[in-house]
Amino acid sequence: MADGEACSQELLPLISRALPSVISYSLPSERVVQANAEGARILARHSSTLSEKFDGDDSAAGDEGDGVASGGESRLLVSAKGDAPMSGDGDVIVETELFLKKVTASSYAHKSWTDMRRTLVYLRTEVRFYNEVVPLLLSEKNSKGDSNSDGNNNTEKAALHKHIPMVYHADYDLGGLVSEDSPATDAKQPSPFPEDDDGAQKERALEGRGGHILLQSLSPSHGYFQDSPISTQQSLSCLAALAELHASAWGNVPLLKKVSDRLSDAGGSYQLRFRNPKELQNMVASWESFRGHFSGVGDGITSILEKESVVRLGQRVYDMADYVSTELLPSVEDEYATLVHGDFKAMNVFLPAELQDGNEAAIMIDFSCTGIGYGMSDVGMHIVHAVLPEHLENGGEERLVEGYLLALEDAVNRVNRNGKAKWTYPRDIAMRHYRLACIDYLRFIMGRFWRSATPENFEKKKSSKNTTLINRNLNAAMAFIEKVDKYLEIFEREKRDRQEA
Prior knowledge:
It is a single chain. By secondary structure, this protein is of the alpha+beta class. It has 17 helices and twelve strands. Strands 1, 2, 3, 4, 5, 6 and 7 form a seven-stranded antiparallel beta sheet that branches. A three-stranded antiparallel beta sheet has the order 8-10-11, with helices on one face. Strands 9-12 form a two-stranded antiparallel ribbon. 44% of the residues are buried.
């Protein structure tokens, strides 16, 4: 999209969902283009009377019921520049920054149907999360709290609200591509058009299909930033936000059933049921290719690749894939089941520039893979994706996991008051879930990325913040391989024991 009158007319109806007095807007030239969506900042010019409403009216956004205003106070930046222009009514014209996330189905016509469908389901899941689930998370917590607890309901509601962005409008149209009742994880859904069709039939099927999410901007001018890798303290801030998300649905079976039905019964971008089956089919070949390219590289750094059990790692991961995946699929009645983020890398969290300011909190974004799971799946992915291996040594990893568990226990006990005994997450069970999650994540990386990995590719991607560290940092990859090798032995033995019992 380019700046101009035609573009302004195109998006004005959408922008008016957030800013009813919008007059015009511009789109800065930079865009965010990722594998499954694209985004752009919007600088909207509007009357200053709305900024006053934002400051004092909880219903300023989402008051028509089709968007989500995740709380009362807007965090949007509204600023008049220079000699502020005036509208015809004498109001000051100011500028507000928004962010628009879009998925246009035709942009992914080059993908296989399995991969294209996953992109479209990501969109559907995130829109449903904001429109259907976030309001329930906030209201359910209000109803579960102790109504005579001196306002602790509102305190807990605010605890989650501050970690979720304000969304003004979210919608999608996947008609003819993915039916409304099609499960998110149905990777075997037949293609609605011939797979080898690059012509008119596919073009017609994709035309006009896709969706959008209009939300608050969290750019540096608003006091937030994204980064990867991140420090231990920054990781703890991310994990504290994650704990609030997990606690918001913990033990709430009716809510989890809703999540299972409307989002996914198997949350996670790397959940086996969600992936292209070819990733698992090619697992052994992928590992052999990785070993062939990396053995002997790095002055002894890759010596772990010569260990006998690691030589067989591809086959071992393949053999255990179904078992591990099944162990990570809790029912909604499971004591440890919750709503998982599903793609909790550091770049899906906006961190406040001043972490020491208790009034600011990490804000999570990109809920496209949200669903039912164990919270430790999010923790496992986050740590390996975004924390350098040297920060995980000498107890660093254990401190991060324990920091999350303490935050989770505190949040769950605030949500589920009503005279219940203090809840704790037994550490042996928590670590079982964490180890399974690490194995599962390696299966995903090995099948999806490591078949084509080379030292040269690692070097090219070393500064790519959206890329997991184990696919761009040799030390991180080797440390993770060594860890998962040990974890696999535990569950290989467990599987054998169960089969023999």
